[in-house]
Design a protein that fits this description.
Bound molecules: ligand F0G
Largest sheet: 5 strands, mixed
Oligomer: single chain
CATH superfamily of one domain: Aspartate Aminotransferase, domain 1
Distance between the termini: 60 Å
Radius of gyration: 23 Å
Number of helices: 20
Amino acid sequence: MKSQDELGVAVPANKPLIVRTIKKVTKEQREYALKKTEYSMFSFPADLIFVDFLSDSGSGTMTDFQWAALFHGDESYARNKGYYVLLEAIRDTFERGNNPKRSINLILSGETNVKKLMDELYITTYEGGFVNGGIHQLTRPNAFIVPQGRCAEHLLFSTIAPILKQNKDIIYYIPNNGHFDTTEANIVANGIKAVNLFSGNLMDDFPYDEMDKRNPFKGNMDLRALENLIQEKGVEAIPLIYVTITNNTAAGQPVSMNNIKEVHKIAKKYNLPLFFDACRFSENANFIKEFEDGYKDRSIPIIVQEMFSYVDGFTISFKKDGLANMGGGFFFKDKGLFHKKFSINEDIGIKLKEKQILTFGNDSYGGMSGRDIMALAAGLYEVVKETYLNERKNQVREFARKLGQNGIPVILPAGGHAVYLNMNKFFEGTDMKIDDFGGVGFTIELLKHYGIRAVELGPFAFEWDKKTPEQRKGVLNLVRFAMPRNVYSASHIDYAVAAITEIYNNKDKIPKVKVSRGAELRLRHFQTGLQPIYKN
Ligand code: F0G
């Protein structure tokens, strides 16, 4: 008899607790709704969709542990109990490796020993890490809770830009292995240039049957390009360096620990703060565990601890690897490089806190509800569990493998949270040109015929028509199928694979697309109207 492991199929990691019925919407009804919503994926009612791969953000299922925590949510205006629990959960997750304190259990177990609660949760002090505590968080704030990732980005860039602009002669550049669209938009909105340094092997072919054997870490930052940028523009023109884990803009590919270390070395050499965009930190850690030499026997929390030991701070959307419906944050090392560099006339943390209060609310809730704070704190413990992470990774991988087997040009190996199609290859042999926005036409057809929603991340989203020939080199032509966490099963994937294959086999019928309204808008893929042009 084969052992459990020898069966070659992963043991299930969870079972559903709540069921939501999908409505029987007809093709004609979807066609009508598409017309009335200007053919925009972002304007189409979610309730009319069978399988929604638009985003993995905030749309996941919460676990029973999270729901239990949610009931302990405290909506007090100042210093709700979840605030303390969340700060401890963040210290546990990013700094304590295999030795978490799990102070959340004090609340969930109904602890009534006041001395214990005060000593272990409410009246503690911390300094020197990403999350000062007690008096140090008051005098040198370095942890900022906000509603979502882009709020953290706004807080960071809108606060440092005026400090940088005091030197009027310098044009500033922030390099990243792949800026997410809101990160880039927040940087640009503050008069700083955003530079993508994708790994050179990103679009290389990879066999679908080798995804379990090796991984080329295509999400890495191009190290030589980073050195060149610093040399060319000068150290003073680079406020900080960003690394996004996993690299959403570069097909959701993971970043290796070795690459993180090498970027850290360069940052150290030039005395530049290194930051993570840490949205999918635990999924990235799981790739390091599976594929990087020396990490197989290390736990996810230990790998996460090492990853974060190389950075000076991070922004994060907890709507991804926090398993939360809402949440974001900005954290930087107490008395670290960022703190020194930007505390010119005033402590940078005090400045940031002022803006946080002005924009989002008191620092102990930062625009989140007490319920969301508790669900998020619990989620941070759920998201580093290997059984969960492996099931999720295998689900995305299986989706990519099935598409690959059907001859669909999918970017391989699969990334952590989504499957991406290479639309340049997809349209080979047709008359579709890059500025016909064929990827958008494909998503319209997929939604119209089969009730499946995906999103173009290519020439339309990244505004090909507004870019210079030089800038156009940095625009990939992809369509993304993002997998919400703990939501879909193999049947949803099989349905999607069959639908995608059918459209691929009829690709000459996919319409070209024109922007009918708002072509000039910023972040236009969320806002514009579209018009598909059918051939007959
Ligand atoms: N950084 C990355 C890498 C992201 O993927 C996202 C969001 C953000 C920052 C912004 O976070 O949405 O909480 O404000 N990505 C979602 C997606 C929206 O679908 O990829 P947010």
